[in-house]
Amino acid sequence: MSDIQVTKSSLPQFKEYVDEISDIWDTHWLTNMGSKHEKLTKMLEEYLHTPNVSLFTNGHLALENAIESFGLAGEVITTPFTFASTTHAIVRNGLIPVFCDIDPETFTLDADKLEQLITERTSAIIPVHVYGTVCDTEKIEHIAKKYNLKVIYDAAHAFGVEVKGKGIANFGDAAMFSFHATKVFNTIEGGCVTFQDTQLKERLSQLKNFGITGPESVEFIGGNAKMNEFQAAMGICNLHHLEEEISKREKIVKLYRESLEGIPGLKLMTLQEDVKPNYAYFPVVFEGEAWNRDDVVARLATQNVFVRKYFYPLVSDYACYRHLENSAETPNAKRIASQVITLPLYADLSLESADYICQLIQSMYTDQIKNKQERISNTP
Ligand SMILES: *Cc1c(COP(=O)(O)O)cnc(C)c1O
């Protein structure tokens, strides 16, 4: 078997991309909200079933700008079981992150532990639809309303997910999606903010373009976070093939599920009722005593299968955040971070490869039993 990496970026056919970008050579319009940018915005508003999409050069700056657009102060409650970006976006806005534990079934922010972390300084909640699994939006938004807090979802993993036919972009006050090369839908690098209050559209446009408000006026201290035309063109092409990509992922996930479900000590993601998933990731938690996650990663690597300890370490254990004292204990997040891996998953992954990976894991389990029996029979 040749190497199997955890992910492989989707690309349209070469010719399709070249056709899409060819008129850029007529217009010489390379960036600053050109026609590709406008076209992709419209396509995404349709795909995500949401009226307000603002494109960004990457997901991280989309989140940073989304947070800034609400003019928040004080503390923000969030999850430590995420990518560095979520917390960095909070801190780079001058806000203090307060870590809340995660639910052991969904790995998303545990809404039952949320209220005890709210203080008079709390201004927002930033939960993550981690692996594309939907947060307990109802409970989170109920609490947010009670305490007058903003809710901004990090939906980097949840592109295209729907709950009872409602697009995931329509929950909370705003949501951020990442279109990074490794995500289900990519624009090479890229991202967007979706939001409920239409007035934010102008604010976000200004923030991502140096705070420029008119030909001779600059009213805000904005940065530069614009999506360029080549990124938007990649998005236009990739969006045409997204349904097909997702259905290929679905077949792989089905195979993983059927093959791994019966192996003792493994915990797979629970399927969510009423949710149309996007099959972004396939996490497996090695929670049985006989398993050691790091051994699994090492043994798979010897067979040229490269998985990720995604998310390990927890953000709250990073050198730059270890000093934070106002956060809750997060025992579930700590445990799952020490036991989880995500298996290779991308549209092009062959079912043979997925099957091979399952066989490797199954054989590790068989070895455990053998070792145990040997230990028992060797006991005097
Ligand atoms: C990918 C990702 C981001 C950042 O997105 P970029 O487009 O890479 O900047 C933020 N949050 C989470 C959870 C992510 O996985």
Please characterize this protein's 3D structure.
This protein has 380 residues and is of the alpha/beta class. Helices cover 37% and strands 14% of the residues. It is built from twelve helices and 15 strands. Strands 1-9-8-5-4-2-3 form a seven-stranded mixed β-sheet, with helices on both faces. It has a three-stranded antiparallel β-sheet with strand order 7-6-13, with no helix packed on it. A hairpin with a 2-residue loop joins strand 10 and strand 11. It is globular. 43% of the residues are buried. The model has no long low-confidence stretch (mean pLDDT 96). Pyridoxal-5'-phosphate binds next to helix 4 and helix 5.
Mean pLDDT: 96
Question: How many E strands?
Answer: 15
Radius of gyration: 22 Å
- How would you classify the quaternary structure? single chain
What does the secondary structure layout of this molecule look like, with pairings?
Blueprint: H1 14-21, H2 24-27, H3 35-47, E1 53-56, H4 59-69, E2 75-78, H5 84-91, E3 96-99, E4 122-126, H6 137-147, E5 150-154, E6 162-163, E7 166-167, E8 174-178, E9 191-195, H7 200-207, E10 212-214, E11 217-218, H8 229-240, H9 242-260, E12 266-268, E13 275-276, E14 283-286, H10 293-302, H11 331-339, E15 340-342, H12 351-378
Parallel strand pairs: 2-3, 2-4, 4-5, 5-8
Antiparallel strand pairs: 1-9, 6-7, 6-13, 8-9, 10-11, 12-14, 14-15
Helix pairs in contact: 1-8, 3-8, 4-5, 4-7, 9-12
The chain binds pyridoxal-5'-phosphate.
